[in-house]
Amino acid sequence: MDNLRRIGKYTLLRGVLIVITVAIGVYLTVIIATMGGYMDKIMASQIREQVGTILQGNEELRKLPPAELKLIIDQMVEQRMREYNLHTPWIVRSFRYLANALTLNLGMAEKVYSDSGSRQVRLILTERLPATLLLMVTANLIVFFSALFTALVLSRHYGSPLDRAVVALSPTSAAPAWFYGIFLILIFASVLRVLPYGGMVSIPPPKEPLAYALSVLKHLVLPVSAWFLAGIFSSVYYWRTFFLIYSSEDYVEMAKAKGLSSRAIERRYILRPTLPPIITSFGLMLITTWMGAIILENVFTWPGLGRLLQMAINLYDAPVIVGEVVIYAYLLGITVFLLDIAYAALDPRVKLGAGGRRPA
Q: Is 208 helix (H, G, I), strand (E, B) or coil?
């Protein structure tokens, strides 16, 4: 019972701390997205400018006396301000944003529309989510598992020509994926003309499911390749160094002295103790796929969440910005919470509960 009580207390405490952290992070996002209230002044100025533009094209209104014309302008501006809730003080709306975000009541976008013409933030995000998941999950899974297995092979052949080549190429990962994307577009789309410049599917889209899938795969090649080139060498170098550190431990040398095979040593004495960091890296990698890649998606005109976030930032659309970030914050918090529990199950060195004792 003491062990169960200790585990329950630890789980509750970690859950509360994560919720508080998520709430703070979301509120900071609200402050940044709204520029601390300065965005209200920008939108009010834009509304007044739009109303003025409309009135300039109306000959009858322009003939009215200045006082009456000003009254009409003020009324139209006030109506527009109420549509965007700008008549409410910013501090009140900021906490309203926070409450809505934490309850996943993402509300209506201010300037961004979905492909179907809806302003519901949830629908806008849902429309863009499949494209981002397709691109980012595919690219990240390829990089992650390729790097992991390549690093394991290199750790067995430390100092080999291939090992030295990977070490030499690791600085190439300093360049972002969009940088490689530009060169890939120039080579394979502009010069060789074997792959499309961008987009997710050909225009007009193929009607047959197989042709549609092949078109999507063709458009997927360049952005995935750009992401792969930007991350593979640094990832291999990181995991290769990680495995080398563990392979030099005393218990590994003892296993070698006992005559265990290389496969058994890797499985029992290298991969098993490194499993928590690998799971952590894998979990956080999956979470980042929900945010997309802003510049990469813009370079390849990929209709995902990253491009949507850039659009929302350019249009000062706070609900869409907050909606994207709050989903990411929730996923990150849930992942960290689950990882804490997984550590206790996978790594005997992790302690739970009070007194530094691990439950039996």
A: coil
User: Letter for the amino acid at 358?
Assistant: R
Lookup: tokens for 21: 């952290």
Q: What is the domain partition of the chain in residue ranges?
A: 10-102, 121-314
Output the six-digit token pair for 48: 């007044």
- Please, are residues 292 and 305 in contact by the beta-carbon 8 Å criterion? yes
Residues 207, 211, 216, 220, Cα dihedral to 10°: -160
> For residue 204, is the peptide bond before it cis, meaning its omega torsion is within 30 degrees of 0?
yes
Give tens-digit pLDDT for 21-33. 888 888 887 788 7
pLDDT digits (tens, 9 = 90+) for 165-207: 988 988 888 888 999 999 999 999 999 999 999 899 998 889 8
Which amino acid makes up residue 58?
N
| d(C-alpha 212, C-alpha 206), whole Å | 5
Domain 121-314: assigned CATH number: 1.10.3720.10
Each residue of 163-176: b (16+ CB within 10 Å) or e? beebbeebeebeeb
Residue type, position 121, single letter: V
> CA of 15: how far to CAs of 11, 26, 80, 341, 352, in Å?
6, 16, 42, 11, 14
Name beta bridge partners: 320: none
Query: Which residues lie across from 120 on neighbouring strands?
Result: 108
What the block records as the tokens of 12 is: 């509750």
pTM: 0.73
Q: Which amino acid is at 133?
A: L
